[in-house]
């Protein structure tokens, strides 16, 4: 698999935090993603009341959309600013509490309890902290993690999935020698070898 010059590219956590602080969040979508709407039936598979995970969630509007449908949403994001903007933009009251298992981490949860967002590094999470999920909406996480961390990321995601879980993944296709990423190019062959 040739991912060109991206193979060794590393984006530090500070760079992501800076993007949120400066508002250079070109990756955020103000409206729900059309592919989630198109493939929602695949994610839900006729089921209701699911636990759905949003890795590297930012302030994705789809979290509220799915919660309003009766699902329980859990997200993780390194930027506290992103998470607080999510609650403010949707006028959702929330409580904030520390996550004892993760030094410096916080959990921001709606008072209704249907949306819980963890402010921490995704690799600090585990199923013992957040439980397991019936569905995953990965709109911009796999393409955002550093190429050298993909196996680590996918291994974590697999431990967070229930047996009959649905995983919706959005990637981008382009010549990786012409763009340094993120979003990073993840060829289909690599997706298949990562997830099995």
From TrEMBL:
Any one biological process term the GO annotation gives: methylation
Main location per the UniProt record: cytoplasm
GO molecular function per UniProt: thiopurine S-methyltransferase activity
UniProt KW keywords: Cytoplasm, Methyltransferase, S-adenosyl-L-methionine, Transferase
Localization per record: Cytoplasm
Alphabetical list of Pfam families matching this protein: TPMT
PROSITE patterns, per database record: SAM_MT_TPMT
Top-level taxonomic group: Eukaryota
Entry keyword annotation includes Iron-sulfur: no
EC number: 2.1.1.67
Transmembrane spans: none
InterPro entries: SAM-dependent_MTases_sf, Thiopurine_S-MeTrfase, TPMT
GO cellular component, one term: cytoplasm
Catalysed reactions listed for this entry: S-adenosyl-L-methionine + a thiopurine = S-adenosyl-L-homocysteine + a thiopurine S-methylether
SUPFAM superfamilies reported in the protein's UniProt record: S-adenosyl-L-methionine-dependent methyltransferases
Family: Belongs to the class I-like SAM-binding methyltransferase superfamily. TPMT family.
Protein name: thiopurine S-methyltransferase
């Amino acid at each position: 698999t040739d991912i060109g010059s991206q193979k060794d590219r590393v984006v530090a956590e500070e760079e992501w935090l800076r993007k949120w602080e400066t508002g250079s969040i070109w990756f955020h979508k103000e409206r729900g993603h059309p592919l989630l709407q198109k493939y929602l039936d695949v994610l839900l598979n006729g089921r209701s009341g699911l636990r759905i995970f949003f890795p590297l969630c930012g302030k994705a509007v789809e979290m509220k959309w799915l919660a309003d449908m009766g699902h329980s949403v859990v997200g993780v994001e390194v930027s506290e600013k992103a998470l607080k903007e999510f609650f403010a933009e949707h006028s959702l009251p929330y409580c904030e509490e520390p996550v004892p298992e993760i030094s410096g981490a916080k959990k921001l949860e709606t008072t209704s309890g249907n949306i819980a967002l963890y402010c921490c590094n995704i690799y600090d999470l585990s199923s013992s902290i957040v439980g397991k999920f019936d569905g995953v909406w990965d709109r911009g996480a796999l393409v955002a993690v550093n190429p050298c961390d993909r196996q680590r990321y996918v291994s974590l995601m697999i431990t967070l999935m229930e047996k009959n879980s649905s995983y919706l993944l959005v990637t981008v296709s382009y010549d990786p020698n012409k763009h340094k990423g993120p979003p990073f190019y993840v060829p289909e062959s690599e997706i298949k070898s990562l997830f099995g």
